[in-house]
Structure formats: structure tokens, C-alpha cells
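Researcher: Here's the sequence for the chain we discussed earlier.
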Amino acid sequence: MTDVGLDDAHAQLRDLARRVFADRSPTTAIRALADDTLGFDPELWRTAAELGFTGLEIDEEHGGAGMSFREAAVVLDEMGRGLVPLPVLSSVVLGTGALLAAGSPAQQAEWLPAMAAGERRLAVAIGPDRHDVRVAGDRLHGSAPFVLDAHAADGLVVQAGGKLYLVPLPASGVTVTPAPMLDRTRRLADVAFDGAEVEPMPGSTDGASVVDWLLDRAAAALALDSHGGARRAMEISVEYAKERVQFDRPIGSFQAVKHKCADMLIAVETTRVAADAAARDVAPRPDGPRRWPSIAKAHATDAYAFVAGAGISVHGGIGFTWEHDMHLFVKRAKLDQALFGTPAFHRERYARLLLD
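Model: Thanks. This is the structure I predict for it:
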């Protein structure tokens, strides 16, 4: 969700999210969490739940706000802007989505109220890299690499054999091993299954449709994260170009720096359009994959990587240092490119949708 086309309610939600994340999750706090096992601030998570951010799409019957992905998009964009390390993509976007689309009434009644309240979290193992998980009877075997926020989840939704299964955690037969990552604002883990008992999710009889829908949600969320991060990286770089003086002139007055900043603006604005289109195109429920989320994810994450890299260049030597924040944007951009399908994967997915 972007500034263009915001109605008053969305603008108020954006301002609230921006203020809370700026106050409660400055880059100093983010850096302090770099070596933390959990990887996010539980108090900030509770605040996000109290503000309703964790239950935006959950219906009022289950304790949520009964809103749509459009409202979630506002929060996702602001989280990208602030590099906020909270398990919103994993649990709010994908975990809630999986329960809404495929969970049984009993599973929804058990999980959704607690998720809306921020008391429980789900991680979701889907996507192009999840091919080594299989079901034998009611037992799960195999492995799922690089599962986002699995280390802090109270349950896993796992794609296996064309369907989705729910695995409450901790559970016998499930091993979660943290994976070392360049971007320390997010945590991924390798999950191994050795006869773990699972609960089928009855709404995923047509598992491909549900997984396509969840991939659309992940792609749109990452496009929004990329837009927020790219815009902030550009703002920081332009501010520096105005202040840094060389040869008695601000470096922003030099043609080479001007052109670089102009290229950054073009990348940010095209990303804004793509992310906004993706947010509008995500269906309320699974009804087949949409075109915009995949191409938006591919373009936005590539553009983010370009903008963050250009920001390093504008800052010169200082941009490479640990003390400066630009490297945080570079690392987030690189992970956004890889999560839930690379740009190449999503461009191929988009091409197949066009041909179909």
C-alpha cells in the first residue's frame, strides 16, 4: 500500500504504524537484536497485537478486525520502511491466510483468536524449495529448508503431497535448526520431520490453489516491504547528498550523484506502482493465481537491491561500515529477492499465467 490513493482510514493507519515503529523499533534497537535468539522484541509484538496489526484479516467472530489485505498492506509497507523485525510476513500474512483458506472450523476456532491476540504464531513451509516433505498415513517425513520464523512458531503449516497439514509445536519428530543468514532482521530455520504427527487441513483438498494464493500473498507482501525499504534508503541517500560537502560543494550538485539519485527515484516510483497493484490484486480467498503479485515481487525486489546498492555508492566509504544503516537495507533487499521464489521464478510464473 502506498501514499497514492490512500483514503483517510488508510492514511491514519499508515501514520500510526510509522509512529509506533519509529518510536519502538529504531535501527539502534534492530542492531541490538542482531545476535538475539528470538530476533524480535516481544514487547513490540504485544504492542502490534494491541493495535490490531496481528488480526487485521481475521473476522470479528475470532477476535480480529475483519478487514482485508489492503489494510495489511499499509502495515507491511511501513515495516519495510523501518526494517522492522517482527514475524508478520510468516504468521500474519501466511499463517492467518492458511487457516482462513484451508483450516477446519475447529482449527480456526483454536488458532485464530490466539493469533489475533498475538499469543500464538504460525510459520508456513511452502514454495519452490519445499519438495522433500511427504506424508505416510498421519505422519510427516522429510525436510523443509529456510522456513521463515519457524524457530519462534507455535505451529507449522506444511505443504506435502499437494495438500496442507498443521503441525503444533513443539512436537515429537520435528527438529528446528536455525539457519545462518546475512540479513539479521529476519530468522529462517531448516525443519526436519521424522514421523511427526500432523493434522490435515481439510480446506486444502485442492492444495495447489491454496498454495498459489499463499504465494500471491507472500509475493505482494515482499513487494510492499521492498517499496518501503527502497523509499527510505533513497531518502537517506538524498539527505546525505545534500549535506556532504566536497570541493566546497554538496556532492548532490555533481552530475554523477544527481543521475544516480534520479535513477533511484525512478526505481522507487515504479516499485510503488507495482506494489500497489499487487496489493489490490490479491484475492480475498483462493480462486487461482493472479498476475500482479509475481511480477511485482520480481520487479520490486530487484529495484530494492539496486536502490540499496546505489545508496552505498552515494555514501562512499561510510556506506560500507557497520556503523552506518545502509548495509541493513542492502541485506534486507537481498533476502527479499530470495524469499518465496527468486525474481526469475516469479517472472516465469507470470509468463505461465499470461500463456494460460
